């Protein structure tokens, strides 16, 4: 059996040109499902939010959710799309246990929004990602495979299905093939999904929480030699974090290059991204449109948005995230590269909310882009899920500003906050981390430091006041960093004057 030798990433992109395409699914935050009145609350007991319509029982007829249509139009407008004056739903037929009707109500050749674009900026360079279509459909149920080691159907002893999610309004945003990215394809894919998430969040139509599945991305990747036709694409399904979008593109470029180098052929298939290893594994052969036997949905009337209504929705769109970042960059007094780093980390809204909670721009950015970003990178989670809220970060900075803790103690307090021990003030009290500024309590430590370092004390007596820093450090060590450095320095100078 032959073994594929994988090239390095740099070697792969030096010899092959990647082409990517991204299909992003957004669960809308409507109160009820797309074609029935069932609630859409996340985390409810399995199969408690269902009815004859979303279970596909005989004789049950769907009725379209106006809020879902409106949200889709607003997304299309925010993505610079043309809005169809007339379109209709279609039946996408397939046999899977997660769709009890055996078809999904979707859109096929008549989508609601077409021909848009999203501009993403990386290191001062702008890349335009063209949008082919934005269409409205319903989500499927959720399958749970148990009894195996992987959580997938292969090797499982039984499968369970929760239909609560079936019928929730789902918007699919499909890009046109993106070419000419070269080695930057993975980071641009991540930047695009990041920008898309920010745009949709600004509209308030979805919470776009990737860890809960309300934002999911299918990543298409193919390789070709320069000047050749595009290669056969693969589709990494349901990639559920920004970091994983980048890793999925990178790993597929490396894998496909290895296959092609060995004289092999890329098969058009869906693949599953593995969070633990960072690579993809085969899923199933990829269907084509004819396999789904699309035909117009006979139980729903066509959608014909009134032009005046569309114009009204367009006029009410919020500030674009890119424009907002430009404004905040000036307000915060930071460089374009610093703002780009903030955006790449997904920290713009977090820092903004921390400032609104009372912190300075510098203080808010310090914690989110420093200690918290480090923890997010170490644990491989999105920054918003690291375990601290903007309000807590603002409270932490307030404790520092008030002199109750210093930066060293603040990091320990933040550790407790992230661990779920409570708000900063509670952690400070519980762990006994408050700065000691009482002169009586500190005087003994100061005298001990002077006695232990007579040479340094002599220099201070001779007027070399900079030497006091060494004694301050000795006192800080003795008090485990809890002494107020300014008070300690004053006590040292007073004792040796």
UniProtKB/TrEMBL annotation:
**What family, per the record?**
Belongs to the GatB/GatE family. GatB subfamily.
Which EC number(s) are documented for this chain?
6.3.5.-
Q: Which UniProt keywords apply?
A: ATP-binding, Ligase, Nucleotide-binding, Protein biosynthesis
Q: Which HAMAP family match?
A: GatB (MF_00121)
Record region (Disordered): 270-289
InterPro entries referenced in this protein's UniProt entry, alphabetically:
Asn/Gln-tRNA_amidoTrfase_suB/E, Asn/Gln-tRNA_Trfase_suB/E_cat, Asn/Gln_amidotransferase, Asn/Gln_tRNA_amidoTrase-B-like, GatB, GatB_Yqey_C_2, Gln-tRNA_amidoTrfase_suB_CS, Gln_synth/guanido_kin_cat_dom
- The protein in question is named Aspartyl/glutamyl-tRNA(Asn/Gln) amidotransferase subunit B
Q: How does it assemble?
A: Heterotrimer of A, B and C subunits.
Superkingdom to which the source organism belongs = Bacteria
Tell whether Methyltransferase is among the UniProt keywords.
no
Biological process terms from the Gene Ontology for this record are:
glutaminyl-tRNAGln biosynthesis via transamidation; translation
Biological role: Allows the formation of correctly charged Asn-tRNA(Asn) or Gln-tRNA(Gln) through the transamidation of misacylated Asp-tRNA(Asn) or Glu-tRNA(Gln) in organisms which lack either or both of asparaginyl-tRNA or glutaminyl-tRNA synthetases. The reaction takes place in the presence of glutamine and ATP through an activated phospho-Asp-tRNA(Asn) or phospho-Glu-tRNA(Gln).
Query: What reactions does this protein catalyze?
Result: L-aspartyl-tRNA(Asn) + L-glutamine + ATP + H2O = L-asparaginyl-tRNA(Asn) + L-glutamate + ADP + phosphate + 2 H(+); L-glutamyl-tRNA(Gln) + L-glutamine + ATP + H2O = L-glutaminyl-tRNA(Gln) + L-glutamate + ADP + phosphate + H(+)
GO MF annotations in UniProt: ATP binding; glutaminyl-tRNA synthase (glutamine-hydrolyzing) activity
């Amino acid at each position: 059996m032959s073994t594929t030798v994988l090239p390095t990433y740099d070697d792969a992109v030096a010899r092959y040109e990647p082409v990517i395409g991204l299909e992003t699914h957004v669960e809308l935050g409507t109160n009820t499902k797309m074609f029935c009145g069932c609630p859409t609350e996340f985390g409810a007991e399995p199969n408690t939010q269902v009815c004859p319509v979303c279970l596909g029982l005989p004789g049950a007829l769907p009725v379209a959710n106006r809020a879902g249509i409106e949200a889709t139009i607003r997304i299309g407008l925010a993505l610079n799309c043309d809005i169809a004056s007339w379109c209709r739903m279609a039946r996408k037929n397939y046999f899977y246990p997660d769709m009890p009707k055996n078809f999904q109500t979707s859109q096929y050749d008549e989508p609601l929004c077409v021909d848009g674009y999203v501009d993403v900026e990386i290191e001062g360079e702008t890349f335009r990602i063209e949008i082919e279509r934005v269409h409205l459909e319903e989500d499927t149920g959720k399958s749970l495979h148990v009894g195996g080691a992987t959580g997938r159907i292969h090797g499982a002893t039984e499968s369970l299905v929760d239909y609560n999610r079936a019928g929730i309004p789902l918007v699919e945003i499909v890009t046109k093939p993106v070419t000419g990215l070269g080695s930057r394809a993975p980071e641009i894919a991540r930047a695009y999904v990041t920008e898309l998430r920010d745009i949709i969040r600004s509209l308030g139509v979805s919470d776009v929480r990737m860890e809960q599945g309300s934002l999911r991305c299918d990543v298409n990747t193919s390789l070709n030699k320069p000047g050749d036709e595009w290669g056969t694409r693969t589709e990494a399904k349901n990639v559920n974090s920004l970091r994983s979008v980048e890793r999925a593109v990178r790993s597929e470029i490396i894998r496909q290059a290895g296959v092609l180098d060995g004289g092999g052929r890329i098969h058009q298939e869906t693949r599953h991204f593995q969070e633990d290893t960072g690579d993809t594994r085969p899923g199933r052969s990829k269907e084509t449109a004819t396999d789904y036997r699309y035909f117009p949905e006979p139980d729903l009337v066509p959608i014909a948005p009134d032009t005046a209504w569309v114009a009204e929705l367009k006029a009410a769109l919020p500030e674009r995230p890119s424009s907002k970042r430009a404004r905040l960059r000036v307000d915060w007094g930071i460089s374009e590269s610093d703002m780009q780093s903030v955006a790449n980390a997904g920290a713009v809204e977090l820092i903004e909310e921390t400032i609104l909670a009372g912190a300075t721009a510098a203080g808010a950015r310090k914690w989110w882009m420093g200690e918290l970003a480090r923890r997010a990178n170490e644990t491989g989670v999105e920054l918003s899920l690291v375990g601290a809220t903007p309000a807590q970060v603002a409270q932490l900075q307030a404790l520092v500003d008030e002199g109750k803790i210093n930066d060293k103690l603040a990091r320990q307090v933040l550790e407790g906050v992230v661990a779920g021990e409570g708000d900063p003030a509670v952690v400070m009290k519980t762990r006994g981390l408050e700065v000691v500024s009482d002169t009586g309590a500190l005087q003994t430590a100061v005298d001990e430091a002077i006695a232990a370092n007579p040479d340094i004390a002599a220099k201070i007596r001779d007027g070399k006041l900079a030497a006091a820093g060494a004694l301050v450090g000795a006192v800080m060590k003795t008090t485990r960093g809890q002494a107020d450095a300014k008070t300690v320095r004053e006590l040292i100078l007073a004792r040796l004057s």
